Each structure stands twice: as C-alpha cells, then as structure tokens.
Amino acid sequence: MGGESGGERGTTERVLTLLGLLQQRQTWTGPELADRLGVTPRTVRRDVERLRALGYPVHAVQGVGGGYRLGRGQELPPLLLDDQEAIATAVSLLAGADGAVTGAGEAALRALTKLDQVLPARLRHEVRALSGSVESFGGGRTPVDPGVLMTLARACRDEVEAGFGYASKGDVRQRRVEPYRLVASDRRWYLLAYDLDRDDWRTFRVDRMTDVSARTWRFRPRAAPDAATYVQEGVASRVYAHQARFLVRAPADTVRAQIPASAAVVRGRGDGLCEVLSGAASLDAMLLHVLLLGHEFEVLDPPELGRRCHVLAQRLLAAGATPRP
C-alpha cells in the first residue's frame, strides 16, 4: 500500500476520488477503498467524515458484505462529474430548457449557469457556448451532429464568421454568414445568421449543413430580430409559396395545443381570440388545416383566400345537396 497524500490539495483530491468510487458501486469495504486510494483504513474513515460534513450521506453497513454506501440525503450536495458527464449534463439541461416540461426551462438555465461556474476552464467554454447561443420554441427534435452544434455555438459566442455547404433544392452551395443564434424547434435545429452574400438575415437548417467551420474573422453584431420568433415565423410561413393570417375564435393556448409550433405562429388577441399565421403549398391546404381545428374563424390575409372560401363553400353545399341515385 502506498503512502498517504500530503497537504490540503492532496486531501481534497483524495476525498473527491473517494466520492467518485462511492458513486460507482453500491457498497465498498474499508480495505477496498484504502487499497484504491493508497491510504490506511483510518484515513478512509476520516475522509468519509469529511464527505458527511459536506452533506453526503455515507452510511457504514455492518455485518457480512458490509462497508460504506452512499445513501440518499435530505439536501442536494455537490456532484462529481468527469469531462464527458459534464458535457452530457449540459446537453441534457439544454433539452430541459426548451420548455418541453412546464416550469423546467428557467430551472434548467439556472442549473447551466451553476455548472458553468464550477467547471474547469477547458470545459467552461464548451458549456457557455451551448447555454449562451441556444434558444427554442418547441420540444423534441431530429438529432444532428453535436460537433456541428458546438462549432456553431462557439461561433455565435465568439462573434466570428462561419462557413458551410448548404443543401437546398438539390444543390449544395457554400454560404458565408455571421451566426447569431441556434434555435431549436419541435422538429429540427436552425441557425439564425446574417448571410453576407445575400446581405440579409436567413434561417438555415443545421441538418442540411456540411463542412461547417468557424473562421477567424470577427464581426460587430448587427441589430437582430428576436431569434426564436423570426425562425418560427420562417418555418411556419415564409418558406411556403402561400402565407395566410386567420382570426380564430378560441384562446391562443387552446389553438397552440392543436398546432405544432413549426406549423403556425399563434398570437393572442384577447377576449378569447387569437391570430394564426401559417403557410402552405396551396391555399386549399391552409383552409383545410384551420377548418379542422373546429373553431369559428375569419380570413385576414390574403384577399384571394377569402374568395376561395366562397368557391369551396359552394362546392361543399352542392355536394351535400346532390340526391343519392
């Protein structure tokens, strides 16, 4: 058995190692822990007391098969995480921060902040890149390469240009952008960025990107639209050939529960009303979707959609009045 570690730093490292061992297995004997730590059983007992003083409920189990066991406490003590576990925890907290669980978003962001404060420098930047550059407006989504997300998140944080190949309508073209925010919808990850070649804000699907890289050229941030709102409106309407606005006679929360966030933007109008902004490949498809919500509604825009309502209404009336052979 090796000699005991000396000094405050050696004691702290040894106690943390002891905590890690207790988290790995249900029960350890004193001699097993002493052998792993390279100390005497007496030092193990002292280190166990140090853990108890920090709030960890370490129980001494008597009899055959006894030893030390980490129990459940009434208070939440600090956790010991390795590098991979810390990054995985940050990613999981981001998933909780997207609002999929009521009330979890703010708590998850607070936890991310605390995690960022105690992480070593080599990991702190990674977590800060994630927590500071991600917004959302929905729940679970299609997975993408986490390395790509990390590269884009760092570019957002560091305010440096990013480049990537982007697949659209069968072609892959190189894009050069000033990345602003990553946004998670209920289906996919998106990047809101200023397209330097098109001189305008654009939304990019992360799953369509290839050869993503962050460059060394820094940029001065521009006045930007609200990231989550801009991306949601783009996903729900701007990408389609036709856009429409409806006034629906139902509360906004009721309609939001009926329509995925990626399919329409729902804004409350008060007095049990809401406005629905949506898009589709055809006017008829939009009318059908709103009709099937089961609420009374009015067409606000475009005017031709209102005229289309009359055409379809006459067709439906005629179909209902046709006598059976």
Automatic annotation (TrEMBL):
<dbReference type="GO" id="GO:0003677">
    <property type="term" value="F:DNA binding"/>
</dbReference>
<dbReference type="InterPro" id="IPR028349">
    <property type="entry name" value="PafC-like"/>
</dbReference>
<dbReference type="Pfam" id="PF13280">
    <property type="entry name" value="WYL"/>
</dbReference>
<dbReference type="InterPro" id="IPR036390">
    <property type="entry name" value="WH_DNA-bd_sf"/>
</dbReference>
<dbReference type="InterPro" id="IPR018356">
    <property type="entry name" value="Tscrpt_reg_HTH_DeoR_CS"/>
</dbReference>
<dbReference type="InterPro" id="IPR051534">
    <property type="entry name" value="CBASS_pafABC_assoc_protein"/>
</dbReference>
<protein>
    <submittedName>
        <fullName>DeoR family transcriptional regulator</fullName>
    </submittedName>
</protein>
<keyword id="KW-0238">DNA-binding</keyword>
<dbReference type="InterPro" id="IPR026881">
    <property type="entry name" value="WYL_dom"/>
</dbReference>
<dbReference type="InterPro" id="IPR001034">
    <property type="entry name" value="DeoR_HTH"/>
</dbReference>
<feature type="domain" description="HTH deoR-type">
    <location>
        <begin position="11"/>
        <end position="70"/>
    </location>
</feature>
<dbReference type="InterPro" id="IPR013196">
    <property type="entry name" value="HTH_11"/>
</dbReference>
<dbReference type="Pfam" id="PF08279">
    <property type="entry name" value="HTH_11"/>
</dbReference>
<keyword id="KW-0805">Transcription regulation</keyword>
<dbReference type="GO" id="GO:0003700">
    <property type="term" value="F:DNA-binding transcription factor activity"/>
</dbReference>
<keyword id="KW-0804">Transcription</keyword>
<dbReference type="InterPro" id="IPR036388">
    <property type="entry name" value="WH-like_DNA-bd_sf"/>
</dbReference>
